[in-house]
Amino acid sequence: MLFQISEQIVNGIVTGAVYALVAVGMTMIFGVLRAINFAHGEYYMVGTFGAWVAIEYFDLPYPVAIVAGVIATAFVALVIGQFVMRRMVGAPAEAGVLATLGIALILQNSVILLFGGGYKFFEGGYIEPVTILGVSLAEQRLLIIAVAVLVFFGLELLVTYSRMGKAMRAVSQNVECCAVVGIDVRKVVVRTFVLGAALAGLSGVLTAPVNVSVYGGMGELITFKTLPIIIMGGLGNVRGTFFAAMILGIAESLVATYVGLQFRDTVGFATLMLVLMWRPHGLFSAQARY
Amino acid sequence: MANTVHRRAFCLLASAFCLAGAPAFETSALAQDSSIRLGIVAPMSGPNARYGAFSLRGAQLAAKDINAAGGIDGRKIQVFSADSQGTPVEGVSATRRLIDQDKVDFLIGDVSSSVTLAMQPVVEDAGVLLINAASSNPKITYAAGVGGFKWSFRNYPTDENRALIVAQYAAEKRGFTKFAVLSVDSDYGRSAIEFTKKYLPRFKGQILSEDYYKEGEVDFRSVLAKIRDSGAQAIIMYGLADTTPIVARQMTEVGLAGKVPLIGNGEFNTEKTIKSAPKALEGAVEAAAWLPGWDSPKSKGFVARFTAEYREAPNNHAYVHWETVNLLGKAVEAAKSTDRAKVRDALAKIKYDSAVGEVTFDDHNQAKLPMILLQIEDGKPVVKGAYSADIDYPR
After folding, report:
1. Contact yes or no for A253/A16 (Cβ under 8 A)
2. Assembly ipTM
3. Contacts of B221 in chain A (CB under 8 A)
4. Residue B250 sits at the chain A interface (C-beta within 8 Å)
5. What's the fold here for domain B34-157+295-364?
6. pTM of the predicted protein model
7. Which of B29, B84, B253, B285 could pair with B91 in a Cys bridge, judged by C-beta atoms 3.0 to 4.6 Å apart?
8. Any idea where the domains of chain A sit in the sequence?
9. Are B123 and B152 within 8 A, CB to CB?
10. How far apart are CA B13 and CA A231, in angstroms?
11. Degrees (nearest 5) of the Cα angle B52, B56, B59?
C-alpha cells in the first residue's frame, strides 16, 4: 500500500515536471505583459512538430531533433513577438486575450494545413523502462525530470543575476518606471516571450516520445492544464509555479488511481478553487515575482 | 448603369437556372421502372470525409460491376450520392433530397450512428428501404423490425455484437475471468462496456476496475499501475485508435507488457500501432467487421478489383458498402421486382453469402453476420476465425 502510494507520487512528479516546464514560460510572459498567453500550448505543439519534422523528413537523431524543435519554436515566437506581442504592452487586457486566442487558432490550423489533421507517430527518444527503487520508468521520464530541475535552476540564476533577468523583474513591477530609467520594455517583452515559448517547445519535444501521438490540436489541453497551475503558483512567480505544478501532478496521479481516470481533468480546477478560497493570491504570494 | 447591372444579373440568373434545370429534366426522363434507383448518404465532407469517399467508391464499384454484367434481370443500378457531412441535420436533408428530388427507392447510409438514427424516421415516413452498412450503435436495430421501424435494416455488426464476441473469445479461448476496463469516455466507449457487463456473467467473468479516459489524455501511468496491482488478466479497451500507442508504451513502462493483453477495439492490429510497443500488444485481441487481409476468395477478389479501379487499397467502409449493394441486388433478384415492399420482404428472408460468411436478418432487421477475430502473435495480426453470436434484445 505504502509502495503503491509512493509509486503514484513518483508518477505525479513526472507529470508535474512536464507541467512545470510549460507553465513557467506562461507565468513569465504574464509577469511582463500582464496577459495570459492562451496560445501557450500551441508553442508546445510547434516544438513537437519541429522535432517530428526533423526526424521524419531529415532523418536526424533525437538529440538534434530536440534542438531543431526548440529553435523552430523560438523562431515562430520571435516572429509573433515582433508583430503581435510587443504591441500588447500597455494594451487593455481584452486585447491580449483576443490576440493570443487568435494566434492559437492560426498556429493550430497552419500546422494542420501543412501536415494534415491526422495523428502523427513520433519516433525517437529513450523509451526503454528502467527500475529505480522498485518503480519502473521510461528513461525519457528521468530525462524530463532532470531537464525540468536544470531549467528551473537556470531560470533562478537568470532572473536573480543577469541583466536581462533584472530587466524582466523591473518590467513586471512597473512598466512606466522602466521606460523612465531607459529599459527598452518592448525588447524585454519580446525576449521574455521567446524564452517562455521556447521552454514550452522544449517540453513538447521532451514529452513527445512518451506521448507518441503528434497532432495539430495537442496544445489545447496543455493550455488548460497550465492555467490553474500559474494561478495557484501566483501569477508571474517562477518558484511558485514549480511547486504548484508538482502539487497538481501528484494530485492528478492520486485521483486517477483511487477515484478514477475520468475525474483526472477536474483535479486542476477543483484544486484551484480550494487554493483560491484559502489564499486568493495563490499559494505563493504574488508580491515576490520571480 | 444600375439598369444594365440588373439586366446582366438577370441574364446570369436565368442561364444558371437553365443549366441547373437541364440535368433535373434529364433525371426525371430517366426514371424508368426498370432501373434500381439507389441513394448513398455518406459524409463526403467534414472530419469523416475519408470514410464517405471509401463508402461511395465501394458502392459505385459494386453497381458498375453489376451493370457491366447485365444488371439484375436486366435492371441497371443507378447510384445517387448525397453528403451528410457526418451530422444528423445535414444527413436528414441529404436523405430528403435523395427521396424527393432523385426519387430513390433504396438508400444506404450513413457511416455515423447519430446520422443513421436521425434518418430512420425519415425513411419510415417515405416508405423507402434503408439498409445501413456501417453504423454500429445497437439502438438503430433495437428500434427496427419488431422494435418499430419497418423500413430500416442493418447489414453491419453492432457494438453489442463486438463486445459479446470479444468477451466470449477472451473467456473461452484464453481462459480469462478477471478484467480491468480502460475505455474512452464517450458513448462508444461506455456503451461497449455496458454490453460487455451484460454478457460477462455468461462466462463467469468479473470486472475488477473501471476507468474511462478523456479524448487527448496522454498519462496512463497511474491507472496502469493500479491495474497491474489489481491482478487483472486482461484490459478491456474500447478506445481511440490514436490513443492505443500511448497506452501500449506506458504498459511497457509500468511492466504490464507481455503479461496483461488488451482486448476490445482501437486499431490494435495496424503495423504502426504494433511497432510503437510490440511487447505490450503481443496477445491483443480485436474484433473487426472485415479487413483487407481476410482470406476468402470473394474478399481477395474485392480487394484486387477495388485496388485496380481506384489505385488504393479499400478499407472497411468500402467493403461494407460494396457488399451491401450486392446484397440489395440479390434481394431485388429474389423479389423479381423493384417494388420497395417486395424487396423488403425478400431481404428479411434472404440467405446471402458475404465475403465473411452467411448473412441473414433477425426480427429486428439486424443482420446476423460473423465478425473476424484477430490476435497479435509475434508482432503480426493473426486471424483466429470468424465468430458470430446471438444478442439478447431488451424487452
Report:
1. no
2. 0.79
3. 11, 14-15, 253
4. yes
5. Rossmann fold (3.40.50)
6. 0.76
7. B84
8. 22-219
9. yes
10. 59
11. 140
